[in-house]
Amino acid sequence: MSTTIKVSTPGRICLFGEHQDYLGLPVIAAAISRRVNIEGGTSNNAKVRIHLPNINRSLHFDIFPEMPYQSNRDYFRSALNILQREGYTFKNGIECTVDGNIPINSGTSSSSALLANWIHFLSRVAGEPKPLSPEQIAEIAYRAEVVEFKEAGGMMDHYSTACGNVIYLQSVPKIKVEHIKPKLGTFVLGDSQEPKDTVGLLKRVKGGVLTAIDKIKKDFPDFSLHTANFDDLSNVKHLLTFEEQELISGNIDNHRILNKALALLKSENFKDSDLGELLNQHQFNLRENLKISTPKIDRMIDASLDAGALGGKINGSGGGGCMFVYAPKNPEKIAQAIENQRGKAYVITVDEGTRLEIG
Questions:
Q1: Is 31 helix (H, G, I), strand (E, B) or coil?
Q2: Class of residue 72 by CB neighbours under 10 A (exposed 0-12, middle 13-18, buried 19+)
Q3: pTM, whole model, 2 decimals?
Q4: In terms of Cα–Cα distance, which of 291, 312, 293, 292 is closest to 301?
Q5: Separation CA 139–CA 158 (nearest Å)
Q6: How many CA atoms lie within 13 A of 144 on its CB side?
Q7: Residue 105: predicted pLDDT
Q8: Residue 265 per-residue DSSP state
Q9: 158, 182, 206 — which closes off a domain?
Q10: What is the CATH number of the domain that holds 38?
Q11: What residues make up the domain containing 119?
Q12: Which residues of the chain have pLDDT under 50?
């Protein structure tokens, strides 16, 4: 094998803007101190050998241009296909080991972090290595995961894991990534260990919002979630079912909350308690209007707040998976409160994005 290299990429939490990025609305996300690692290099045959000890699996396949996909989410091949279209060559084989400590299938972007990390790794072991910027890695990861397989997701996962720290991501009218540097304390991530139906939830929530917007635009063609307020909603309620009213109301208010959070995170007068309150407001909408929370996650959040957390919310598409709370003081006590509700708790901090590990 050639010289061994190691790269790592973090998972992420969505601070504000849950279920909004795929609607073209902005989000605020933070990379977390739980990461996926890839270590390896090139080999003497034109094969890919990927060892996955965390799930007791390994993958082996030949490399050639425009490889057909073996599944709907064949991200290892899709990344190679796209990089080859971009001019990268892989005449030698590749052998590597993938491991990490990001909760899997829990809303913390373990798959997007893996994909971004794989692209970072490939850019460094190609025939002519051409390291990519974090933004370039994110853009290719989005194409390899969402565009290539016609998935329903947005860009948040790819940009937050690749770029790291706290970002404000705007995708309309064009992609804009703003790096924010608030002085944040610790969070506690809680995995409910409940399985998620991401596809089903996206179909219900995204489909419901888009159907509602189509109905509104027939009578009010200038309606936009980017500018809408509750006065606008009162004028169009008669066009919508009650569920559609809830979805539109939740999205309008979550956009308002995000704008308040952005100003707070950039303010010299930042207060931990203000961040916690905005997280609680966001969770209220996610629970009551979008209906993506679960009774167990609600209990985990309530127990965390009772133990001293300042605020929290469900994380990711919902229907299971993870929640998190902001806990700059006594995070271990709050982690225990989550464990008492039969969740799996992790004390986390904001972390940097994809990186080459030295030593």
A1: strand
A2: exposed
A3: 0.94
A4: 312
A5: 7
A6: 33
A7: 81
A8: H
A9: 182
A10: 3.30.230.10
A11: 5-182
A12: none
